[in-house]
Write a structure and sequence with these properties.
2 helices; 0% strand; mainly alpha; Non-classical export protein 1; single chain; NCE101; 59 residues
């Protein structure tokens, strides 16, 4: 008989936890790379919003 599956939190919460960890790691890496290019965190956030279309376009 196979041993029971090992979960960090629970069967349902582990994928959500992994998603948050992955997104946090990606955001940290992107922010670090943008700072090396001389951009502020606010400039990086605004550029990301423009890229995904979250900012309204001025007429």
């Amino acid at each position: 008989m196979a041993p029971p599956a090992a979960y960090i939190i629970s069967r349902g919460a582990d994928p959500v936890f992994a998603l948050f960890i992955g997104l946090g790691a990606a955001a940290t890496r992107i922010n670090r790379e943008e700072k090396e290019k001389g951009r502020t965190t606010q400039q990086t956030i605004e550029a990301a919003k423009r890229r995904v279309g979250l900012l309204s376009k001025a007429s």
